Amino acid sequence: MKYKRLMRMALIFCLLGGCSSPAPAASETPADPAAVSEEDSGRVLIVYFSRAGENWEVGNVAKGNTQIAVEIIAGETGYDTFRIRTVREYPLSYQEMLDVAAEEQKNNERPELREEIENFDDYGTILLGYPIWWADMPMAVYTFLESYDFTGKTVYPFNTHAGSGEAGTVSKIREVIPDADVHDGLAITGKDTQNDPDKVRGILQGWLRENGLTAGE
Fold first, then answer.
1. Domain of 66?
2. How far apart are CA 41 and CA 193, in angstroms?
3. What's the confidence (pLDDT) of residue 38?
4. 116 found inside a domain
5. Which of 7, 139, 167, 180 could cysteine-pair with 104, CB 3.0–4.6 Å?
6. Are 125 and 157 in contact (CB under 8 A)?
């Protein structure tokens, strides 16, 4: 009887909240792997190719048209930048540059690049800028695209041109990096970057807003 009485008392005590399962220690709570990947996917890098020297309709310039556009974007957003530079530099003469570029296209060359991005995996979004040469990207941009794994990355192309628009380059980018999400491109008239930077700034600001690429978004 005494044993039964003790058991009933213990049962009543538990029912009233006196018994509970021990809480798991903090170390037993699994880490959320998505937290790290989401943080990395939010990082944005501006990659671009640009050439100074003699340019179409603007004469000799200290900064290439695409570089000016990149500096506007970086100033608006604070994003990191990486310039694609080749081991073999292109001629300052516009006509000589065109001759070299035509030869590279004809031979489907992949010019050697001077630097590489050591932490490319840290960036989830790439803004890719380039001029249009002979209705295509400079072949050095192909070298860059083929040198990295773009799986799961988001790419926003933009270019400067002298009247040819994006010249079908967005489709070519999609072919080279099929595992990336490549958005439609933005084409900017090259001479406007030199002669009317305020106009170009407005175009780029609108493009950044439309794609949710402004700082803090």
1. 38-210
2. 30
3. 46
4. yes
5. 139
6. no
pLDDT digits (tens, 9 = 90+) for 5-47: 444 444 433 333 443 333 333 333 333 333 334 455 679 999 9
Q: Check if the beta carbon of residue 66 is closer than 8 Å to that of residue 130.
A: yes
Tokens representing residue 200 in the block: 């170009």
Amino acid symbol at 145: L
Between CA 41 and CA 180 the distance in angstroms is 13
Domain count, the chain: 1
Q: DSSP code of 137?
A: -
pLDDT at 13: 37
Q: Name the one residue in this structure whose structure tokens are 């002979």.
A: 134
Residue 21 corresponds to which tokens in the numbers above? Answer: 């399962």
Give me the count of residues in the chain. 217
pLDDT of res. 188: 98
Dig out the tokens for 203 from the structure.
């175009």
Q: Look at residue 90 in the predicted model and tell me its pLDDT.
A: 97
The b/e string for 106-127 (b: 16+ C-beta within 10 A; e otherwise) is: eeeeebeeeeebeebeebbbbb
pLDDT for position 32: 35
Residue in this structure with the two tokens 């065109």, named with its chain if needed: 98
* DSSP summary character for residue 161: E
**Euclidean distance between CA atoms 83 and 66, whole angstroms:** 10
| pLDDT lower than 50: segments of the chain | 1-38
